Amino acid sequence: MPHPIAFREDDPGLAELRAIALGFPDAFEKVSHGRPVFCAPKMFAIYGGSIKEPGPMRTVPNCVLVKVDDSDRAALEDDPRVFYPAYLGPYGWLGLDFSVAEVDWTEVAELVDTSFRLVASRRLIEQLDQR
């Protein structure tokens, strides 16, 4: 049974995230587990996520999930907008909740750039650097 769609095209921040993510070399979007996922071909950004806290799982519908560099992790974890996403957190991913404060899209672009560089092939990173 497929996952139900967990987003709408007019969700806050989706269009902005889509514009950022699809600007990377060979990037494409697909729906996985009911959410927009941006890949090249490995996933590097996801719109929407959830938090598995003690108790029931909580959905964070308007956010971006990205893989983060270990050197940035401590600073990001201190940010009240940032959360440890269910399922992907143990693999180096964090979430940035768009509903906690006004979104700085330059910051989001930098987070997505880092995530892309952590999963993309050397060829795609070279293409990105040549731009």
TrEMBL record:
Keyword Nucleotide-binding found: no
GO molecular function: transferase activity
Superkingdom of the source species: Bacteria
Protein keywords: Transferase
Name of this protein: Phosphoribosylglycinamide formyltransferase
Species classification: Bacteria, Bacillati, Actinomycetota, Actinomycetes, Mycobacteriales
